[in-house]
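Data card: per-record layout.
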Amino acid sequence: MLPEGAPAADHAPVSTHAYATLVTNADYALGARALCRSLRLTGTQADIVVLHTGGVSGPDLEPMHEFGVRLARCDLLPTSAAFNAAHGRDRLHGAAPFTKGEKPAFHTPLDNFVKLRLWQMEEYERVVFIDADALVLRNLDILFQYPEFSAAPNVYESLGDFTRLNSGVFVAKPSAATFAAMLARLDAPGVFWRRTDQTFLQSFFPGWHGLPVYCNLLQYVWFNLPDLWDWASVRVLHYQYEKPWQDHAKADQVRPLIDLWRAYLTGENIPPDIAALPGPKEGACGS
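The structure for this 287-residue chain is written out next.
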């Protein structure tokens, strides 16, 4: 019997390894559709698990069945009222405002901690978590050979960003014991995780293993660090802050990346050779 609130999947696993993502509302369900298509197009035989909470309707989840995913219903973590108040959207963003980009209105910080539930998925030897606002452009199966806890750096503005991890892609080894230890530390009296799960995971795994930046390349690199952009190396493209399905102030700056995401969402006009796409210094790439 599953622990209360743990991920409950709609069918049995096929593989001992899985890619997992988290969907907490209709917007992220849209993002997950593009992500799941991109994963399947890499030829992976690993399971794809879509964790979802009560904020997502059946019709929003239904399109993902096309990609043979396991839909796994789960609950928010059983955190205290004090923890929930400190990490509510208005309170958290007031205490630790985002100054580099704009978080969308549908973003709810408390939802981020649901990622920790993948440590309850002990049917898998390894799980690679990928945020729903990302695309996988090359096969990532090698990451199943990486140790826990592996993540790419949070590089989007300068080379100094290499010292912090980004929790949009990481490698985990599911364990009920690890999950219990996480909960005990997560909701300690007076805690405040400035960037929610990201800050917590870096604290919980201080000796984290660094993945190449191209395993989680953030979209702001396109205009902040164009010399770092290399389509031939990009494995995961992550649309941090503003999302490619929104109208937003930076849309024109990242238009080629938005066009690419829309191609994966619809399955139409996906470039046959990602490595051949023009870079940020070469002009726009069409979808």
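Known properties of this structure: The mean pLDDT is 92. The chain is about 25% helix and 15% strand.

See the next section for split statistics.
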